[in-house]
Each structure stands twice: as C-alpha cells, then as structure tokens.
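Good morning,

Attaching, inline, the backbone tokens for the sequence recovery test we're adding to the shared suite. The designed sequence is right after.
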C-alpha cells in the first residue's frame, strides 16, 4: 500500500507537464495547439500516417477498418495522393509532412499547386521539416 502511494506521488509531479507521444514532433504539437477540435464536425482528414490526424485534430480519417488493417482504396491514395482524387474519396482536408512531400512524383506535387488547394496552416523548423494542413473542399 505504501509503495502505491509513493508511485502516485511521483506521477502527480508530472501531471502539469504533458509530453507528446514518441511519434509526434514539435511541429505536430504546434498544429495540435492551433487546430485541436476546430475543424468543422464531420471533416475527414487524409494523412499518410493514419493515427496522427485524429490525434492532432480530433477528426476522423478513413484509412482502415482497424488501426492495423488498412483499406485498399486508402493505400492507393497514399501511393498517389492527388488532391482531386482525395476529394473524390470524401476527404475534406489533408495533412502532409516533408517526408511525404519528398516522396511525391513531380506530377503529384504540381497537382498540389492547384488553386482548389487552400492552405489552412503550415509550420516549419530550421531543419527543413514541415507540416501542412490544407483544405480540399474546393477540389471537385
């Protein structure tokens, strides 16, 4: 019983100092602080890392039936995330990072410059990493 009380006392000192998950960066935390639960209800966010967008924005993604079984149509979109195709699949927003951007073909990168892609927010660091939240609702 005493050891439980000591354990609780140690844990209580950390309550006021939340720590992000190991797979989130300071850029993701900045997006979380700016946009958590602020996108419209029913927004569907495309993120090649399917657990990240719901964690940061409090909105759904349509990646799979479970955390471990991804839908084939989602996997196809990850391979070629063209904004109009994402919108046709029902996504209203996309959340991209520098790693994803670097993997895109020149044609797919060019599609992200279309006028229908509206930047909501972008955060960067000095190392060249970034996070980009875009609105796809105008992409028909």
């Amino acid at each position: 019983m005493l050891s439980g009380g000591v354990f609780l006392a140690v844990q209580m000192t950390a309550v006021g100092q939340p720590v992000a998950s190991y797979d989130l960066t300071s850029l993701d935390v900045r997006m979380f602080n700016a946009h958590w639960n602020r996108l419209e209800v029913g927004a569907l966010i495309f993120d090649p890392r399917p657990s990240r967008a719901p964690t940061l924005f409090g909105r759904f993604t349509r990646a799979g039936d479970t955390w471990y079984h991804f839908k084939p149509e989602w996997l196809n979109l990850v391979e070629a995330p063209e904004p109009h195709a994402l919108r046709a699949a029902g996504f209203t927003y996309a959340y991209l990072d520098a790693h994803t951007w670097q993997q895109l073909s020149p044609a797919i990168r060019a599609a992200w410059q279309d006028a229908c892609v509206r930047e909501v927010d972008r955060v960067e660091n000095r190392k060249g990493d970034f996070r980009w939240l875009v609105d796809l609702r105008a992409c028909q």
